[in-house]
Amino acid sequence: MAKAAASRFVCQSCGSVFAKWAGRCDGCGEWNTIVEEAAPEALPKGATGGRGGRKLDFVPLRGETAAPPRRRTNIGELDRVCGGGLVPGSALLVGGDPGIGKSTLLLQATAALARSMRCAYISGEEAVDQVRLRAARLGLDDAPVELAAATSVRDIVATLEADPPEVAVIDSIQTMFLDTLDSAPGTVAQVRACSHELIRLAKRKGFALFLVGHVTKEGTIAGPRVMEHMVDTVLYFEGERGHQFRILRAVKNRFGATDEIGVFEMTDRGLAEVLNPSALFLAERRGNVSGSCVFAGLEGSRPVLVEIQALVAPSGFSTPRRAVVGWDSGRLAMVLAVLEARCGLALGGNDVYLNVAGGLRVAEPAADLAVAAALISSATNQPVAADMAVFGEIGLSGEVRAVAQADVRLKEAAKLGFAEALVPRRPPKPAAGGRDKGRPPPAIEGLQVRELGHLQDLVAMFPPLPKRDG
Where is this region: Disordered (predicted)? Predict the structure, then answer.
């Protein structure tokens, strides 16, 4: 009988297992990520078979299920992203770049919660004295938070199981290790096994668990992707080091809406909530400047107005430059191609720079029309009206397509004092007899709404541009 292998080779990027070492992982295509690890102990025969199993009891889909209770952190932006507060027995994974403020936010949250419930903060990266110094700097040293420094999951599980708190923070999961595995902390096997043990304990004892996760150079949470499937909520902390704004974005939430965001401002006293992010993002905007346009966006259920800045300049190189900050470079290339092919504008030979002011990352296609307006404004040196908000998706044929929740975007623009809005034309509403009946634009008090059906309608609002040859 062949002897089982004593080790196996595991990719540290995607978790694929190989029988021998290779330079490139066939699963994810990464190089030099395959590491030798001790093989897990095989289960005895029949342990995973159908013998001895318990018969499942099926129930109907319809039934009485109460809404999960919530534990509010008294940090409104964090509660908003979590869906209204923390759910007992849930596991939340918080990821972000080094120094972005993950530990600061969780220390502030546990300090606020500890005044009404029992909270434990376990640090694997910093000593107790280091955490105390941060708490003193933030003015939180009087909060009754139970603090410990440990990396052994066996010790942590034994402690939390004997006397479980209501909220526990593990900072970070990459520093934890399980002594039953021979691999080093931070490897795929360790992260997966440690997460499984801690999440299982949290659900069994009914306390909310925060796991802090490192991110890779691509910005995704390091370790196996299966860890994001194991937890109930995945939060990404975003922001640029040069900006004081921080965005907490929910990309997964089993107890609330996804793509919800919370906005914070980094101060010398920690992270402060931003209750009106639109006003903050537009605070430094200068009116009557070419290449600037206000985009009425939507992040989760929250409308956000942000400034789109574009600069079109003659290129001194054979290949013009395309630099994008805060938006998708692929969509910028598409908008430029539509402007040239459908509207006859000669922009392809220029350098193009695009920036979303304030450090916010915009992902929705509704920003296409605002980007096009900023590009044309910069190329013609003709500013967009300072009190105009723009949103709409652009198709490859040049049509301006409708986007979701236009009324919410327009109400936010009117609330901030905007007088005009450029929006997509509403699709016709079928009438009796099979004929289409046009719908009027939404009526918002104090806001003049102008509808566009094609990108050429936007180009006609500016002075003539250089036309493409042919």
Answer: 424-446
